[in-house]
Amino acid sequence: MGAGFVKAKLDEAWGFLRAAMEEFAKAGGDPVRVRDAAEKGWNAVVQATEALIYALAGVRPMSHYERRVALMDLERRRDDVRDLGLRDRYMSRYKILHGEAFYEGIIDPEEIILEFERVKEYIEAIEKLVK
């Protein structure tokens, strides 16, 4: 599994982000499509996080809770992970894209666009750490 798994997860992350941005652009204000786009953006974060955790800790978390705990553990053990604030960034995307936009239906188009940019930066930061 190893490097192939990490690469596959990063590829999935980029694919979900592209799909999120395309769906958002085509949504035309349709709240269901915007909410689905936000959830795809969140899934990009999940996939990238799984790549990071597997690459640096050799485990596959099975839940959001396990991902948070693994990120906390990585931040304790690695200055580079802590300095990037990846757990906080993970939780911010969780709150806005998954919790507010998707589940609560709070749709602020400018904020969603900003969140997609932050997802892109998150994936890029993880790519640098795992290579």
User: If you consult CATH, what is the topology?
Assistant: Four Helix Bundle (Hemerythrin (Met), subunit A)
Q: What fraction of residues sit in β-strands?
A: under 5%
Kindly state the number of beta strands: 0
Question: Which structural category do the helix and sheet elements fall into?
Answer: mainly alpha
Task: Name the overall outline.
Answer: globular
Report what the structure shows.
- With 131 residues, the chain is mainly α.
- The chain has a single domain (2-130), classed as Up-down Bundle (Four Helix Bundle (Hemerythrin (Met), subunit A)), CATH 1.20.120.330.
- The chain has helices at 2-26, 31-57, 64-77, 79-84, 86-104, 109-130.
- The two termini are 16 Å apart.
- The model has no long low-confidence stretch (mean pLDDT 96).
List keywords for this structure.
6 helices; Four Helix Bundle (Hemerythrin (Met), subunit A); 131 residues; globular; mainly alpha
Write a short abstract of this structure:
With 131 residues, this protein is mainly alpha-helical.
Blueprint (SSEs and pairs):
Layout: H1 2-26, H2 31-57, H3 64-77, H4 79-84, H5 86-104, H6 109-130
Helix pairs in contact: 1-2, 1-6, 2-3, 2-5, 2-6, 3-5, 5-6
